[in-house]
Amino acid sequence: LTISDGGVVDAVSDVNIGSEAGAEGTLTISGAGSKLTAGDDINVGDAGSGTLTISDGGVVDAVSDVNIGSEAGAEGTLTI
Questions:
Q1: Within 10 A of 6 (CB to CB), how many other CB atoms are there?
Q2: What is the signed CA dihedral for 72, 74, 78, 79, rounded to 10 degrees?
């Protein structure tokens, strides 16, 4: 998923990127005014493989925690 050019996404609960074993997910937030808001946690590679990239003025806001590579065998990458 890519949020760019001033796009805004508001999630009412968790945002999961690569949440299950064997799953792969990528989320990119790029550009001024582009924003992701999670109503709870952001999980990057919770049990699978996840990548979160925030660049060029993009904004990410989590009401609670940001978890990266939480479970055994998981891979999480955060690039700012």
A1: 11
A2: 130
Which residues partner with 42 through β-bridges?
A: 15, 66
Rg (CA), the chain: 12
Torsion of CA 30, 35, 64, 42, to 10 degrees: -50
DSSP string across 15-65: EEES-STT-EEEEEEESTT-EEEESS-EEESSSSEEEEEEETT-EEEESS-
Which residues have C-beta within 8 Å of that of residue 8, sequence separation ≥ 6?
33, 34, 35, 36, 37
Residue 71 near residue 47 (C-beta atoms within 8 A): yes
pTM of the model: 0.93
| 3-state secondary structure (DSSP) of residue 76 | strand
**pLDDT tens by residue, 47-59:** 999 999 999 999 9
